[in-house]
Amino acid sequence: MTKSMGTTRLTRGMIAVSAACLALSSVVLSTSAASASVKLPSSGVETPTGGTVSETGSTLLYPLFNLWAGGYSSKYSSTTIQTGGTGSGTGISEAENGTINIGASDAYLSPTVVSANPTLKNIPLAISAQLVAYNVPGVTAHIKLSGQILSKIYQGTITKWNDSAIASANPGLTLPATSIVTLHRSDSSGDTFLFTTYLSKADPSGWGTKIGYNTTVPWPNAPGALGESGNSGMVSGCKATPGCVAYVGISYLTQALQAGLGYAALQNGAGQYQLPTQQAIALQAAGYVKKTPANGTISLIYGNIKGGYPIINYEYAIVNAKQSSSSTAKNIRSVLEWAINKNFGANSSYLTQVNFQPLPSKVQAQSLKQVLGIS
Questions:
Q1: Within this chain, do residues 241 and 136 fall inside the same structural domain, yes or no?
Q2: What is the pTM of this model?
């Protein structure tokens, strides 16, 4: 598959997901979590006090945060965003223990973490998705894979690419008898959380009962299974391993295509096989807008949504609502206000570079309310 083929497929039928249509003129917005009212300027973004805002976590969100860092500092030169791609688990834990201002995560906070840290928030910033990539010599088509098939692959009960289960899902496609090598994340990863959630929902009596989902899981002993660190490691590892299958964040699509990897059409909750096109991601997201609670904690995976791509998610900022100083709180609010504003960080000039989509207006309004509660 060539890069141009993959790019054309992803952009075909693109539809815009509306970003927030909030009136951000000078108005005092109060939240129950805020100790005082925050007055937003007409731009919708507070002017920071200056200094450094530290961020680390999700490698899926890392490319976008790097883009944001440059864009934000070009507008507010007194403030620098220090970014890091260390995995969602690290982003959550460092936000939890206060060693980082913003933890980046593909996963929402678990009830256990929230119970232990009631002021810790997961704030949706954008919509992302996950690919299932593979290195199958001689195959250029998009292989159709279901969650049940992937569950059996990762449990080591389907071991060849020409297995009858894969072949029956792909009539007319010639598949080689190449051995399958599963790749998984060795670090604590939001991508692992997303992928294992898909497997758990698609195969509840199998993967869901035996293994479950989390940022780390006890991986079964599939033949030749390999652990890789970060999304970059998953791409490079799959490139170097004929027969591999790997879950990769969509912000690494270009790298995956450049590495010569293919990516699958995944079966959704409605029984359809869908590619991660902008349209399919948007349809999936639209099905969850009304269901998204005020705190943003919800799985967007494997819904019974016609035309929807089954592995999408909100990308989260993990932030403590109670900061050590008002100046730190204001800096964090400013960065996040800028990030979710359609005129700035949520503009397509940033998001399309990593194949992300902006938050729907209702969710953006909820995120802004959480941001304004940081004090």
A1: yes
A2: 0.90
